[in-house]
Automatic annotation (TrEMBL):
Family the entry assigns: Belongs to the trans-sulfuration enzymes family. L-methionine gamma-lyase subfamily.
Record's GO cellular component terms: cytoplasm
Cofactor section: pyridoxal 5'-phosphate
Lineage: Bacteria, Bacillati, Bacillota, Bacilli, Bacillales
Keywords, comma-separated and alphabetical: Lyase, Pyridoxal phosphate
UniProt cross-references to InterPro entries, sorted A to Z: Cys/Met-Metab_PyrdxlP-dep_enz (IPR000277), Cys_met_metab_PP (IPR054542), L-Met_gamma_lys (IPR006237), PyrdxlP-dep_Trfase (IPR015424), PyrdxlP-dep_Trfase_major (IPR015421), PyrdxlP-dep_Trfase_small (IPR015422)
Domain of life: Bacteria
Keyword presence, Transmembrane: no
GO-annotated biological processes: methionine biosynthetic process; transsulfuration
Protein name, as recorded: L-methionine gamma-lyase
Keyword Lyase belongs to the record: yes
Molecular functions per Gene Ontology: homocysteine desulfhydrase activity; methionine gamma-lyase activity; pyridoxal phosphate binding
Modification sites for N6-(pyridoxal phosphate)lysine: K208
Catalytic activity: L-homocysteine + H2O = 2-oxobutanoate + hydrogen sulfide + NH4(+) + H(+); L-methionine + H2O = methanethiol + 2-oxobutanoate + NH4(+)
Length: 393
């Protein structure tokens, strides 16, 4: 794989050679479920793995493979795999790496459905879970047990934007040969590349910044070839949460503008952060590259920029937070992030409603907390909407 191009060039050119596809500058959409064989013998060779080629789109599809190669190149991994959703990617990785009675060490905050999936695994397969702040080497080392199967991390953590030092955790995990899995959805590979920091597996909800247009649900995993070959042959193929060719086509298109979009998301988020911090109705603002952020030094070290998501607390409680949402007009009340539209949601009653109150508390989620996915609109218009709503609460 070529490595010499800059990231902004790779998103456009990696994983695709137009002359291999009749000069089609844009990758073709292979909207087909199956592929015919020229002969019985060829079918036999394909199934035996003796001949490269396509069989059935749940196993491999050309458009999906182009997306997978691009993702591998962008995360600096050996292989990429595409999934029907971020959660299909998370569940394929987690079930691949664990067996009954294993232990999983997790970051203190997790995406709501990942928390739900892990809770189900705890009940059904007697898997034990440990949630850790992972602030020091000693803390990570002391939480590792003989049956620890993996360390699962989100950074920035949704919705509190707490950060975990990926280089530090992967160094400690290596001492014990434990794989470190990182959900990199909030950063995108443009802002943070966990494999470069020593982590083993990267997961994305491609629904967010990879697609970037709010029109597809998709997931991706990148890592070492041996492990991803195993996932491809087992939990991907047999559980079957594979990506549709059309979704891969949309994502290939979305990827081409990812760095341009991300820079604009970040420009807007930096300005909105500074304005929110000065507003009298705002109690606190959480943004990774803001100097008041408790993990600012980790943010500067491992993230190119702070990303497009800001979490803030309004003065008051749930009532004031909900009032703010209801006063907005340009900004849409919606979960998800990374869309061109600015979106806002109330984590306690929306994305993290499945998390029991005691866990919400230890994750730092409060009733006055709002999560803003800053879009691509003019920052002046985003701020005007926020300011008029803040003035009313
Ligand atoms: C959205 C999201 C997921 C789940 O992805 P889907 O594409 O909705 O299945 C997982 N992790 C994080 C951090 C997310 O934001």
């Amino acid at each position: 794989m070529k490595r010499e191009y800059h990231f902004e060039t790779k998103v456009i050119h990696e994983g695709y050679t137009d002359q291999d596809w009749m000069g089609s500058l844009t990758p073709p959409l292979f909207q087909t479920s199956t592929f015919s064989f020229a002969s019985a013998e060829q079918g036999e060779r394909r199934f035996a793995g003796e001949e490269e080629g396509y069989i059935y789109s749940r196993l491999k599809n050309p458009t999906v493979s182009i997306f997978e190669e691009k993702m591998a190149a962008l995360e600096n991994g050996e292989r990429g795999l595409a999934f029907a959703s971020g959660m299909a990617a998370v569940s394929a990785v987690l079930t691949s790496l664990t067996k009954a009675k294993d232990h999983i060490l997790c970051s203190s905050g997790l995406y709501g459905c990942t928390f739900g999936l892990l809770s189900m695994m705890r009940e059904k397969y007697d898997i034990s879970l440990d949630f850790s702040e992972m602030e020091t080497e000693e803390e990570v080392r002391s939480r590792i047990q003989p049956n620890t199967a993996l360390i699962y991390i989100e950074t920035p953590i949704n919705p509190t934007m707490k950060l975990i030092d990926l280089e530090m955790v992967s160094r400690v995990a290596k001492e014990r040969g434990i794989p470190v899995v990182v959900d990199n959805t909030f950063s995108s590979p443009y802002l943070q590349r966990p494999l470069d920091l020593g982590c083993d597996v990267v997961i994305h909800s491609a629904t967010k910044y990879i697609g970037g247009h709010g029109d597809v649900i998709a997931g991706a995993v990148v890592g070492k070839k041996d492990f991803l070959d195993q996932v491809a042959m087992t939990t991907q193929k047999d559980m079957g949460g594979v990506m549709s060719p059309f979704d891969a086509w949309l994502l290939i298109r979305g990827l081409k503008t990812m760095p341009v979009r991300l820079d604009r998301h970040c420009d807007n988020a930096e300005i909105i952060t500074s304005l929110l911090k000065e507003h009298p109705k705002v109690e606190r603002v959480y943004y990774p590259h803001d100097s008041s952020h408790p993990d600012y030094s980790i943010g500067k070290k491992q993230m190119k920029r702070g990303g497009g998501v800001i979490t803030f607390e309004v003065k008051g409680g749930k009532q004031e937070a909900q009032r703010l949402l209801n006063e907005l007009s340009l900004i849409k009340i919606a979960v998800s992030l990374g869309d061109p539209e600015t979106l806002i949601q109330h984590p306690q009653t929306m994305t993290h409603a499945v998390v029991p109150p005691e866990n919400q508390g230890s994750m730092g989620i409060t009733d006055s907390m709002l999560r803003l996915s800053v879009g691509l609109e003019a920052w002046e218009d985003i701020w005007r909407d926020l300011e008029q709503a803040l003035d009313k609460i």
